[in-house]
Amino acid sequence: MPRFAKFAWGLLAYNLLVIAWGAYVRASGSGAGCGAHWPLCNGEVLPRAPGVEMLVELSHRITSGLSLLGGLALAIAAHRTYPRGSVVRRGAWTAFGLVGAEALIGAGLVLFELVAHDKSMKRGLSMALHLTNTFFLLAALTLTAFWASGGARVSLRRQGVVAWSLGLAVAFMLVLGMSGAVTALGDTLFPVHSVSEGLLQEISTGAHIFVRLRLLHPVIATLTAVVVLLAATLARLLRPTRLVRKLSLTVSLLIVAQMIAGIANVALLAPIPMQLVHLLLADSVWIALILLAASALRAPEAHALPGPSAEGGVLSY
């Protein structure tokens, strides 16, 4: 595998860890650990006698900063390695822009104090925006690594029902991700001590909208699972290459695992470790779905991009 491709896959894996740590910051209520200051922490470069919450938030800022530097390095390396007009170049620069957007959204949450125990709609909308940007970032990194590994470019022309079904699955995953982000925020802000208490809280006439989403989110998740499974099945039947078959199976297994994790998350009253597992599974489903779409919707006339071939190299299964 080309060194650039290895770096791209590694950066994707690193960003998954950064995302998980960011979820821990939210779930543990440590988002205000550095006060309403950014990029400084409580107005200091190196805080003296930091508390636990400050250390958690500060470490997240450091890991996010390294992600930004990694995105810049990826874009520069792509610019120097691949020719003008290369999809690898475009993917890498897009990923860097989205990492920058992640940093700006995080800064906005801190500066406008939409962290810790804030229950405003602004925070809910910000969380949905944050999740959407995160999904787009993961998609950009995934496609950059895929293309750098020899994957062919994508084309939507004359792809018929395969393109429509996969596009619908991607749209449903975005909606599910946004509802999940707000639901997870509700679990943090309005904890319960039993499933029955949670149900009473949800059906109460004065329930906060974050709490009401606990009832809606499982419905969205079920519909999304059905759409994703159908799209994966259609891709496997209509584009029966080895790679598409393997990715179709991977997507199907991951979405089932995600549903099981969601049920466990509700039954266990959303403990932080289960929330992180649930999030990482959602990210994994998204990445696998993007890879499936890229493999199934390759341009009919396309040849593999510079690097190992799609069937004989790293993309072979």
From TrEMBL:
Stretches that traverse the bilayer: 7-24, 62-79, 91-115, 127-149, 161-185, 215-235, 247-270, 276-297
Taxonomic superkingdom: Bacteria
Keywords: Cell membrane, Disulfide bond, Heme biosynthesis, Iron, Membrane, Metal-binding, Oxidoreductase, Transmembrane, Transmembrane helix
Localization annotation: Membrane
Main location (coarse class): membrane
PANTHER family, per the entry: HEME A SYNTHASE (PTHR35457:SF1)
Protein name, UniProt field: COX15/CtaA family protein
Organism field: Pendulispora albinea
